[in-house]
């Protein structure tokens, strides 16, 4: 990590648009992008492949250290995630993987195991980092911090459309339940809970289009 490398953090709950907005802003600025949630999802999925019990913290911590995770920009603009040499992008995006990630993310030693890996993404010319604790724990000295929100109903609707467009069969009511459960677990855990940093700019994206949000975030960085 270079002390002078500019960092923008974008935190928020599931479906608030962190990933979409972060990638677009990073593209426009020509900066690197860290999808920290993908690291937690990858460890959860790798643990599943290795039959590790989600209630076995010591084995999960070993898994967090041992899992090889690489990101690759695909030709269609999607970010592919390669876990232990397997393209796990589609498996990672499922709600099952999200729930497993949220469960293992509550284990302090798992969070500690992933800390340095996240900080290594900070390379010139700049970094946009998205997650739950980017502005509070991983990059507390970030130059700009954004906290995105949207109503739970709108977030569930967005996820519904997103998964449907990929041919994944889900129900809106089921997604809303899962989103509310994940919000509660991520916000109530003892270590690095989901919350805005004191110096974060909050943007409620309910009813806003993607372009509107990108404009607001870029305006903040350029100010
Ligand atoms: N402001 C917005 N308005 C409408 N849809 C949005 C907005 N931001 C994101 N989306 C859509 O919502 C879905 C979930 O966004 P995503 O970036 O994956 O959220 P997160 O990373 O916070 O879980 C995506 O399909 C995305 O295109
Ligand atoms: N910085 C982070 C990122 C994700 N997590 C955990 C908590 C989240 O519910 C899961 C999945 O995160 P991810 O950002 O991929 O999920 P969403 O796209 O917001 O649905 O991982 C975390 O604890 N800290």
UniProtKB/TrEMBL annotation:
Its EC number is 2.7.4.25. One of its GO terms (biological process) is pyrimidine nucleotide metabolic process. Gene3D superfamilies: P-loop containing nucleotide triphosphate hydrolases. It holds the Pfam family Cytidylate_kin. ATP binds at residues 12-20. One of its GO terms (cellular component) is cytoplasm. Transmembrane segments: none annotated. It is found in: Cytoplasm. GO terms for molecular function: ATP binding; dCMP kinase activity. It comes from the Bacteria. NCBIfam families: cmk (TIGR00017). This is Cytidylate kinase. It comes from Cognatilysobacter bugurensis. The gene is cmk.
């Amino acid at each position: 990590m270079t002390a002078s490398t500019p960092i923008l953090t974008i935190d928020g709950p599931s479906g608030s648009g962190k990933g979409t907005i972060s990638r677009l802003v990073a593209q426009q600025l020509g900066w690197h992008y860290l999808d920290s949630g993908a690291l937690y999802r990858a460890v959860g999925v790798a643990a599943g492949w290795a039959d590790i019990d989600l209630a076995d913290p010591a084995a999960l911590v070993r898994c967090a250290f041992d899992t090889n995770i690489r990101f690759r920009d695909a030709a269609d603009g999607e970010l592919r995630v390669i876990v232990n040499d397997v393209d796990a992008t589609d498996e990672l995006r499922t709600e099952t993987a999200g729930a497993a990630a949220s469960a293992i993310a509550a284990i302090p030693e798992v969070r500690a195991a992933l800390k340095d890996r996240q900080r290594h993404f900070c390379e010139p010319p700049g970094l946009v980092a998205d997650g739950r604790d980017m502005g509070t724990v991983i990059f507390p000295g970030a130059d700009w911090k954004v906290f995105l929100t949207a109503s739970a109903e709108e977030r569930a609707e967005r996820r519904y459309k997103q998964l449907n467009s990929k041919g994944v069969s889900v129900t809106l009511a089921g997604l809303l339940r899962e989103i509310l459960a994940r919000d509660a677990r991520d916000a109530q855990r003892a270590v690095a809970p989901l919350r805005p940093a004191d110096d974060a700019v909050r943007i409620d994206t309910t009813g806003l289009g993607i372009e509107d949000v990108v404009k607001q975030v870029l305006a903040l960085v350029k100010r």
